[in-house]
Amino acid sequence: MTKNENETKNETARKLTLVIGGTGKTGRRVAERLAHRGRPVRIGSRAAEPAFDWHEPATWGPALEGVDRVYVTYYPDLAFPGAAEQIGAFAEQAVAAGAGRLVLLSGRGEEAAEHSEHLLKASGGDWTVVRASWFNQNFDESFFLDPVRHGEIALPTADAVEPFVDADDIADVVVAALTDDRHIGKTYELSGPRLLTFSDIAAELSKVTGREIAYVPVSDADYRAVLRDQGLPEDFADLFALILDGRNAHLVHGVEEVLGRRPKDFADYAREAAATGVWDL
Q1: Which of 103, 107, 194, 223 is the least buried, fewest Cβ under 10 Å from its Cβ?
Q2: How far apart are CA 52 and CA 57, in angstroms?
Q3: Mind listing the pLDDT tens digit for each residue in 64-106?
Q4: Is 27 exposed, middle or buried (0-12, 13-18, 19+ CB in 10 A)?
Q5: Residues 211-225, buried b or exposed e (16+ Cβ, 10 A)?
């Protein structure tokens, strides 16, 4: 190995990336991809060491020590009350601590999320914003998993359409944004390759599982009652109403723009997920 190659390798090894939500749907995939490239990663979560908790600012400093770039995700959603203020305060602290590269996972069509974006940009760091549609993986790694297993997806979405995007595509875009200067100062909107209703989703899932998965439209009040019973925030109902009102009922092309390829189709995702047995009874 030449001297220059050694220097490049050592420089890469010193670039520590904090992946907030590093055990989640996109964070886990981003962390795996960075590690595969030989880039050291620190997972940002309450269970990590050092711990990171959005609601405990005292944890931010230790998590940022030695970090030069951050993948910023916020649970449950940037549209929730108080999220923007926490994003802004964290971004300022991150840049002051030497983490000058910030990639934010945002949502399409969410005005409250855009406020978080503005505050992150105001930190003075090199930023990239990745706005994503609903994840395919919501059906096998998140809140739609149990409904799919039980054969009924009950939601207050009527005939709304959504261009579901795959978490693998999101992760590939995020890694590109974290590692390539060409993406600094860019906002990318990501979607899958086609618009789908929840009835379409149920049909695709029925096909790959070999049993009937039904979509059942319910009222907003009934859905709020379900959220309360499950101990989930009722804000999810507001989010449904907001982003499924038609504002996102069109395709965008961020995946192609960044990666030079088409995004994964929901049918391909569903077939791969079914093969793991995640929906088996």
Answers
A1: 194
A2: 8
A3: 999 999 999 998 889 888 999 999 999 999 999 999 999 999 9
A4: buried
A5: eebebebeeeeebbe
